[in-house]
Amino acid sequence: MRIYYGEIMKQKIAFLYLNTGGGHIAPSKALASGLEKAWPDDDKAFLCNGFSDKMVFCRLFFEKGYLVSSNYFEPSYVLFYRMTEHSLCRKLGSYFVSIHGESHLYRFFRDNGITKVVCLHEVLIDVARKALDRLNPAIPLITLVTDPYTAHAIWFHEKRMELVVFSEKLRKEAIEKYGYAPDRVHAFPFILNRAYDRRYTEEEVIEAKKRLKLPLDRKILLIAGGGEGLRSADRIVSEFVSKKRDEILLVVCGKNRLLKRQVQLLVDWKKAENVIVYDFVSFMPDLLNVSDCVITKGGASTVMEVLAVGKPVIFSTFIRGQELGNVLFAVYSGAGWSVKKPKEIIAQAERVIGDPAMVRDVQARIAKLKIRNGLDEVMRFIHSFS
């Protein structure tokens, strides 16, 4: 709580995000709501999409472009990812984003009386810094690097801010490779939804299955790829259906409408009654906890959520560069496998589901990782930093 001229003033904290997958939006919402609940008299949170409605090209390029390229034209995404590591490309990108972005954020900060800014997307760092320099350079800027193990160089270019990272690997990299002052780099456990603070008990799993109208006596395989769905999920489903497996297969397509149509058409054509297709869901904790094995990609939030509930995981794909570190962390820890071909993916899932001893071994290895939710620690840091 701040007192100005005898008047009590709340901290007004802006959380900046973009609609490029759930890994930026979810922690923004979790932190914003968490701060207001923990310190209702001290903090007021404001969620802000870093791109205004006028920034049509930026929204199309970064938001829709991310969905299309990451799912259907990965080489183009990887090329863009690599190109933007160079300073000239970064400066050009920052210029185009700043044309309308700087004024958009400046007005948002000014009109809402923002006293602290938390940035959760690397593309917004430069423009947020410029907006704050125009308004009041003393307003703190805190950036959360949402990629825990393999992070783009853009995250580390601006030095006039506090940097929150989710692994000692990145903390060391920020200091030794990018020249950050050690006292400006802060490492915490990864931020998770409150629902992943603990695993479901056996009774809670049964109740979740009843809510989802799933049979209590059959094994469950889950395909999920975060907010944008899992690339090539239709091919994996096709392989599962062709094997005439007895397990229940749950397929979450997220916001990817094309993928949902493809999978649903396949399921209807094959009359596969043991396959259930979802679009974007709000009950992922239920789906993960009731599953016996998860097929997914290397997105940071998805990886950490699967590990938090202690499930064996098969990575069918990952975005090279950005998600490689997440997959390596899980695979080298003995928590899962990286398998590319749909036939081999289903074969590995069969081995996992049919071998309770293997599942117990994997769960024991996951337990050694001591995955815990860093939400409270990061909230306290943001609240108290000045």
State the domain count: 2
Report strand order across the widest sheet: 4-3-5-6-7-8
CATH-level-2 architecture of the largest domain: 3-Layer(aba) Sandwich
Helix content: 40-55%
Extended strand count? 14
- Give me the CATH fold name of the largest domain: Rossmann fold
* End-to-end CA span: 11 Å
> What is the strand content?
15-25%
The secondary-structure element order is: EEEHEHHHEHEEHEHEHEHEHEHEHEHHH
| Average pLDDT figure | 88
In the CATH scheme, the class of the largest domain would be: Alpha Beta
Biggest β-sheet: count, sense, barrel?
Answer: 6 strands, parallel
- Computed structural class: alpha/beta
What is the CA-based Rg, rounded?
A: 22 Å
